[in-house]
UniProtKB/TrEMBL annotation:
Residues 121-213 form the FecR protein domain. The keyword Kinase does not apply. One of its GO terms (molecular function) is sigma factor antagonist activity. The keyword Transmembrane applies. This is Ferric-dicitrate binding protein FerR, regulates iron transport through sigma-19.
Length: 328
């Protein structure tokens, strides 16, 4: 598959992301080469207006001037005639299409910074996964999580980016190279610790298991220092940082340990933990039950098994249909 075809596949998807055929073609192309995912993410970011890092040896301004000239002089692009001497195919290209094509050229010019040679991308679907980073730190990924780190990680920096999902970091101490996690609008910095970062649509949550970390909104002086047992919540497009101290038996890391523990926990908090762990919606129709307390441990059990035990232990009614659980 040549570069022009690659561009066509990505552009068609970006122009109409709901088109199933475009989704299929993009997915097949990404599966062909691990580096194609990095290329797609870079093009997607620039398509939506993210700034493009420029390599010092690359004349970005000059290339944009050349592109401008091209746009003024070339209203159409003509593909070469095929061997059967069919009539040339003419494609009208709008400025956005040319812009995306130019973006690919700029990516090539800064390949060592943002392309497949610049960082590695890891993503999970339904499964969980774990890996050891080049510096010896351990990274545990929840389902539906995507992270990136530079190929030079551990040499001159220890920067990791979590684009979405949830990850637990067990960081090897290195005072000379602080470990930094970048999440949407939020930066977390540590020297050596174990902590959890969850990047959701509403914001980012950081929970510390051991050591100390700082959490801050990017571009804002205000930050908070977190110690073991403390969780910080940083909202999207926000400036305030809310903190909460959890008791020892909490379920923030249940996705990693696969064990849910409730120590006289109110039913409304139980519902929140189950909803997060099993990715379902839970409604307590009878609010008089919200203060009922549960004392139980569920080691790697299915949702229906857990609900059956709760039903018998608390003597309550529970229905479970599809992704909706009703407690009444």
């Amino acid at each position: 598959m040549n570069n022009q075809t690659d561009i066509d596949i990505v552009i068609r998807y970006l122009e109409d992301p709901e088109n199933e055929q475009h989704k299929t073609q993009l997915n097949e192309w990404i599966q062909q080469d691990a580096g194609n995912l990095d290329i797609f993410l870079d093009m997607k970011g620039m398509w939506h207006g993210d700034p493009l890092p420029a390599a010092s040896a690359f004349d970005t301004q000059g290339q944009w001037q050349v592109l401008d000239t091209m746009l003024d002089r070339v209203p159409v692009a003509v593909l070469p005639e095929v061997a059967q001497q069919k009539s040339p195919r003419v494609i009208k290209m709008n400025r956005r299409y040319w812009w995306a094509a130019a973006a690919v050229l700029l990516i090539a010019g800064t390949w060592t910074f943002i392309g497949p040679g610049g960082y590695k991308t890891y993503a999970t679907n339904q499964q969980q996964d774990s890996m050891q980073l080049p510096d010896g730190s351990m990274l545990y990924l929840n389902a539906h999580t995507q992270v990136r780190y530079a190929r030079g990680f551990g040499k001159d920096n220890r920067h990791v980016r979590i684009d979405k999902g949830e990850a637990f970091f067990d960081v090897k101490q290195n005072d000379a190279l602080p470990f930094i996690v970048n999440a949407p609008e939020v930066e977390v910095q540590v020297l050596g610790t174990a902590f959890n970062v969850k990047a959701a649509n509403t914001g980012v949550k950081v929970f510390v298991q051991s050591g100390k970390v700082s959490a801050a909104y990017k571009g804002i002086e205000k930050k908070v220092i977190l110690t073991p047992g403390v969780e910080a919540s940083l909202r999207r497009n926000g400036q305030e940082i809310d903190t909460r101290t959890h008791k020892k038996n909490n379920n923030i890391l249940a996705w990693k340990t696969r064990t849910l523990t409730f120590d006289d926990t109110p039913l409304n908090e139980v519902a929140d933990a189950l909803a997060d762990f099993y990715n379902v919606q839970i409604k307590i129709s009878n609010q008089q039950l919200a203060d009922k307390k549960l004392l139980a441990t569920f080691p790697n059990m299915s949702l229906d098994e857990v609900l059956d035990i709760m039903r018998k232990t608390l003597r309550i009614n529970i229905t479970h249909k599809n992704d909706l659980v009703d407690i009444y």
